[in-house]
Design goal:
The N terminus is likely disordered. Helix 5 crosses helix 6, helix 8 packs across helix 21 and helix 12 packs antiparallel against helix 21. Strands 1-4-14-13 form a 4-stranded antiparallel beta sheet, covered by helices on one side. The longest helix has 46 residues. The protein has 2 domains: 265 residues, no CATH class; 350 residues, Amino acid/polyamine transporter I (Up-down Bundle), CATH 1.20.1740. The chain has 871 residues and is an alpha+beta fold. Bound molecules: S-adenosylmethionine. The site of S-adenosylmethionine (SAM) has 18 residues, from strand 3, helix 6 and strand 12.
Length: 871
């Protein structure tokens, strides 16, 4: 971190003191570094080294006291300053201008003073190393390059001086002897600590490195003025490290969080220093330690709150009273400290929280709406009739509503990667998490070729001259680009594609209304005519009421493929900004989406077309050209029946974009599921690796490989391939819901057993646990009756049976196999880890930190409208 800040207004100095006297006594007595017995070093794959509490550290306790390896004063005018530091490092006392300060007899620099002759004498050898350099360069560097660069160069010189001194003491060896710390925890000391600092040429821009290289050549080369015997490259490296690790010294403590309303800023900087151990502390915008130098420039870290075992101990790298919103804090980190977005791990397990509320909402729409709603749904109209279709969708709608309640309560509580998969493992049985994870991955991954096949058939509405293989490859490239170009671009692309879907759906509802009241070329006010003739219900497969029930059941089964959504919202949980707020809104608005898209969709479809429409029948039977394309959509058939020009093309185009978006979304969801599986060691670790931009790259590559299944259509009819995939995927969806609702019931029981009040949860579902039980029974029953038709007399089909029920077998084999292999245990409610390690605490902290940060709306009126709709 850069060491000097611009000097501000004068603020009187406060006496520095270690807050807990017991520990202060220890530190003062030893006048050396002191490390809390519960403090240890750890490594975070992204942040690098970190300080961590091995056991709890109570609020107010001193966590670390560190001696500077090198320190410089940074004052406006040394003659009048009350904050000049004694140049003898172990003393480094702050001296007022009225004190008897001793200047360098050589007159090298006004900033060099000692508090006593004893300190001057003790510092003789060290100062001799810098004295010539200061005499030669200090004034000219200050004049030509300013205070910041001078301070940086001087601190480097003092680091080199400390090294030289230690080497001389050790008899001229090339490395200094590093006193091991007596607690045996391996905190490096001295020069060894400097070498293990993070920061290298790669951490800084080329321009910056070039500028420093020039400074090294001009001012820091080994020679009679500065006899350090290090090559230029080593000195350059030292600058890169010093800039990433030095502390500015300020009179008041930094890092009280939340910032009290009457908090004072940290005051004017009076020095800069490098500390061997304090440099290991990472930054947090909601730190759990405050830091402040004491009278001798020792850095004191104090626990600002109770720190739990396993928790990282963080400080704030900047003054939280000056940077109050998240945006400016991020900019600060980026410009000054050159790292971004990993400000807090935020329970996202290395994914980056960058998706905004509207993007999450639209991603959920994007995943939930595809071919099925516009085309496939029409296939059950002849089985159930318009009322049967509406009833079937409404009946299944109650199940999915209950499922949504279960998802919402758990995911808002713990918005982590692949939440329902991870939570099943933590709260029910690892074997359930394993089976659900792989089942969900297969649901998503098999959905991708389904959408690609659908794109191909939609294209054949206009031409069948594009080779199937070319379509598959082009779509794969599009998905690859959108998913690999960071989650930000993915979110934006999906945002626009999803808007097309919404426009399409609202347009089709509008189309239905306008044409039913006579707004069509025939001026036919057909209203609800088709509900009377040929009728509202169909007796499907058998006569009378039983037949009507069968019709409704067929529609419910179609609904269980069409009506989806909560899982898509959940999949964005770890990448959503302000996850609890955003998730809450997304799950709540799922209810109106359900009404507008699915229920209204089912109603409209039954209005625009009679269930016995000959074109629809021929399309479903595959005896008509255009079967399985946009022409198979009841809306398009209706448009043609009403002799409406152009509109069918537009609708086909919009369906195409919506299918494209659904596939894109599936790549995202499937890859994030794999990433989640790898994090929980249920898939090879390599799939959990993210690029520096937070992309789970190997998971994306493996997911994309499933696109190749779309090549199956080269050999088979596309409609056949679509049917295979639909059958397999429907069972997977239901199994996933079933497992999630079982997890919810366990979560509910665990909350009760552990005395957690549900009113404290960020989202509290209605009618629980009854809604949970209803969802479990509903989805369980649906998955069992999926292939019901094959059990009717004379309708047996082995292919249909296998396709409908294969996933149940896969699910059971996966679960039982993992249970046997890993000997997993069924988690009892009172034992369930409701915080899932430190993840809940991380999210809590992140939520607290970002609460003020996102108040500003971005963009103009358009975004205002979009946000009002989608946030
Ligand atoms: C003073 S060092 C902290 C210790 C460092 N992690 C190490 O390995 O030595 C500062 C550097 O740590 C990393 N760092 C600190 N806080 C971070 C955070 N919240 N997220 C990501 N990186 C962080 C940045 O690379 C920064 O330049």
């Amino acid at each position: 971190m850069p060491l000097l800040q611009p000097l501000g207004r004068e603020i009187p100095l406060e006496p520095a003191a270690v807050t807990k006297s017991t520990v202060a006594d220890v530190t003062a007595a030893k006048a050396t570094a002191w490390i809390h017995p519960h403090l240890e070093q750890g490594v975070d794959p992204y942040k690098g080294r970190q300080l961590r509490a091995a056991q709890p550290i109570p609020q107010g306790e001193v966590v670390l006291v560190d001696m500077p390896y090198a320190v410089i004063p940074a004052v406006d005018d040394p003659r009048t300053s009350d904050a000049l530091l004694c140049s003898h490092p172990p003393c480094s006392r702050r001296m007022s201008c009225s004190a008897d300060r001793i200047a360098c007899p050589q007159g090298c620099l006004g900033d060099v003073m000692w508090c006593s002759t004893a300190c001057q004498a003790a510092d003789h050898a060290r100062h001799a190393f810098e004295c010539t350099w200061l005499k030669r360069f200090a004034a000219s560097i200050r004049e030509k390059r300013g205070e910041y660069e001078f301070g940086m160069l001087w601190l480097i010189v003092r680091i080199l001086a400390a090294r030289q001194l230690a080497m001389s003491a050790a008899g001229g060896e090339s490395t200094t002897p590093d006193d091991p710390v007596d607690d045996g925890r391996g905190f490096a000391e001295g020069w060894q600590a400097m070498r293990s600092f993070c920061g290298s040429e790669d951490s800084w821009s080329h321009a910056q490195v070039r500028a420093w290289t020039a400074l090294v050549k001009k001012y820091l080369r080994h020679g009679p003025v500065l006899p350090h015997h290090l090559p230029d490259r080593e000195v350059l490296k030292l600058i890169c490290q010093e800039e990433a690790n030095s502390f500015g010294l300020y009179p008041r403590e930094t890092g009280l969080y939340p910032v009290p309303p009457d908090a004072l800023d940290r005051g004017d900087q009076f020095g800069a220093a490098v500390y061997p151990r304090a440099a290991i502390a990472n930054h947090s915008c909601g730190p759990n330690m405050t830091h402040k130098p004491d009278q001798h420039s020792r850095m004191i870290f104090t626990a600002a709150k109770d720190i739990a075992a396993g928790e990282e101990c963080c400080i704030s790298y900047f003054d939280l009273t000056q940077f109050t919103d998240l945006q400016t804090r991020r900019e600060r980190l980026q410009t000054l400290f050159r790292f971004e977005a990993r400000v807090l791990s935020a329970g996202s397990q290395h994914l980056h929280r960058k998706l905004r509320g509207r993007e999450v909402q639209l991603l959920a729409v994007g995943g939930a709406i595809g071919t099925s709603l516009f085309v496939q749904m029409g296939a059950v109209l002849p089985k159930g009739g318009p009322a049967g279709l509406l009833l079937g969708f409404a009946a299944y709608g109650t199940i999915i509503l209950a499922v949504n309640q279960c998802f919402a309560e758990m995911v808002c509580y713990l918005p982590i990667p692949s939440p329902f998969v991870q939570l099943a493992g933590h709260w029910v049985d690892d074997a359930l998490g394993f089976a659900m994870g792989w089942n969900f991955f297969l649901t998503m991954a098999l959905g991708i070729p389904y959408e690609i096949v659908a794109i191909n058939v939609l294209l054949t509405y206009w031409t069948d001259r594009i080779p199937v293989a070319a379509v598959v490859v082009i779509v794969m490239v599009i998905y690859g680009i959108l998913n690999v170009l960071t989650v930000r671009y993915f979110g934006v692309a999906e945002f626009y594609l999803s808007i097309c879907k919404i426009i399409l759906m609202i347009g089709l509802i509008g189309y239905t209304f306008v044409t039913m009241v006579g707004g069509n070329p025939h001026h036919d006010v057909y209203g609800f005519r088709y509900w009377k003739d040929p009728g509202a219900f169909v007796s499907y497969l058998t006569a009378e009421n039983t037949g009507r029930f069968c019709g409704v059941l067929a529609c419910m089964i179609q609904a269980s493929f069409t009506m989806v959504g909560p899982e898509y919202i959940s999949m964005t949980a770890a990448e959503a900004e302000r996850p609890r707020v955003v998730m809450h809104r997304a799950f709540t608005s799922f209810v109106w989406r359900l009404m507008v898209f699915f229920i209204a969709g089912a109603l409209c479809m039954g209005i625009v077309l009679p269930y016995n429409d000959p074109t629809l029948a021929a399309t479903i039977a595959g005896t008509r050209k255009g079967s399985g394309t946009g022409a198979a959509s009841p809306y398009v058939i209706s448009m043609n029946n009403l002799s409406i020009p152009v509109l069918p093309h537009l609708v086909n185009f919009l369906i195409l974009t919506s299918v494209l978006s659904a596939g894109n979304n599936l790549v995202y969801s499937a890859s994030r599921t794999l990433h989640g599986l790898a994090l929980t060691r249920k898939a090879p670790a390599i799939l959990g690796r993210c690029t520096t931009r937070g992309l789970p790259i190997y998971a994306i590559v493996l997911t994309m490989a499933f696109c190749c299944l779309a090549f199956l259509q080269v050999q088979h009819a596309s409609a056949t391939v679509l049917n295979w995939l639909v059958s397999v995927i429907t069972a997977s969806y239901l199994l996933n819901y079933f497992g999630t609702c079982v997890t919810y019931l366990h979560f509910y029981a665990a909350l009760k057993a552990q005395g957690v009040d549900r009113t404290t949860l960020p989202f509290r579902g209605y009618l629980q646990p009854y809604a949970g039980w209803f969802a479990v029974c509903g989805t369980g029953l649906m998955v069992l009756v999926l292939g019901w038709e094959v059990f009717l007399h004379g309708r047996w089909s082995t292919e249909t049976f296998v396709l409908d029920y294969a996933m149940i077998a896969v699910f059971v084999v996966l679960g039982v196999g993992w249970k046997a292999f890993r000997r997993t245990v069924w988690v009892r409610p009172e034992r369930a880890d409701l915080g899932v390690g430190t993840l809940r605490a991380e999210v809590d902290e992140y939520e607290r930190v970002v609460r003020d940060g996102f108040n500003k709306r971005q963009g103009g009126w358009w975004w205002w409208v979009v946000d009002r709709w989608f946030e």
